[in-house]
Write a structure and sequence with these properties.
By secondary structure, the protein is mainly beta. It has strands spanning 4-7, 10-13, 18-24, 33-39, 46-51, 58-60, 68-73, 78-83, 92-99, 117-118, 122-127.
Length: 128
């Protein structure tokens, strides 16, 4: 069983930055593909960013447009999402996800069903 705990959310003004962190339990973290998703009130959960288990490949939702950066630190069993130039439409609960199933080298995953474990989320609010 893998436990994921997100942190780093909060209230920020338009144009500001936040860095989210997701700490994972388990001894095989380095083999997990990881992802960030978000869900705004009244909307479906959507893909934000993903990183391959090797850390060599990342992918992002179309709305990111170069504003976010996802990295992993396997020594700390943690992934990070650096979010810059935040907009009011980025307001949402952000969820971390882990894929423990076999993953192809250099592959990121963009669908919820491709992940096996989820955190409880952290709220990000961008005020104008």
């Amino acid at each position: 069983q893998v436990q994921l705990v997100e942190s780093g959310g909060g209230l920020v003004q338009v144009g500001g930055s936040l860095r989210l962190a997701c700490a994972a339990s388990g001894r095989t973290f380095s083999s997990y593909s990881m992802g960030w998703f978000r869900q705004a009130p009244g909307k479906e959960r959507e893909f934000v960013a993903g990183i391959s288990w090797s850390g060599s490949i990342t992918s992002y939702g179309d709305f990111v447009k170069g504003r976010f950066n996802m990295v992993r630190d396997d020594a700390k069993n943690t992934v990070y999402l650096q979010m810059n130039s935040l907009k009011p439409e980025d307001t949402a609960v952000y969820y971390c996800a882990a894929r423990s199933r076999v993953a192809r080298y250099g592959t990121t995953y963009r669908r919820e069903t491709e992940y096996d474990y989820w955190g409880k989320g952290t709220q990000v609010t961008v005020s104008s």
